[in-house]
Amino acid sequence: MVEIYDGSLDVKSIFNRWFDEQSGNNYGAFIPFVGVIRDEDGIDGLSFDIYEPILTAWFNAWQEEAKARGAILKMAHSRGDVLLHTSSYISAVFSPKRRVALELIDEFVEDFKANAPIWKYDIRNGKRIYAEDRSTPMSGAGLLRAL
Question: 91 and 112 in contact (C-beta within 8 Å)?
């Protein structure tokens, strides 16, 4: 299940919980990934909108892929505003073998960037501005704009 949180993620708490949940399952590898909001282009942070039904379906397909490889995949993402130097996205793979976990986390994070239904906005002076130049268009999706 995808975990959605309002605002910045408490990375340590989430990773500790995930580790505790899986620690007795004989996995030899726990590979985490943390996405952190960088200070660039004068932004104060980023803000996110999520279309949860499609995100859940997308993540469930990845869960099946992980299961087929003998692994478990976890993911958490922020909704709303996330300020600089905090996390908006974390994921992790638990696997009996490190090679499976390393390959799966790489494939998953790359596909997340390309296909997850999450829209990113820059926060500048308290305003949300769609980050079109740094967004990856999804097939069949678009923004509704007022004329």
Answer: yes
Between strands 127-130 and 118-124, the pairing is antiparallel
46, 131 contact by CB (below 8 A): yes
Q: Which residues contact 143 (CB under 8 A, 6 or more apart)?
A: 119, 130
Please state which CATH class domain 3-131 belongs to. alpha beta
More confident residue, 134 or 58: 58
pTM: predicted TM-score of the whole model, two decimal places: 0.89
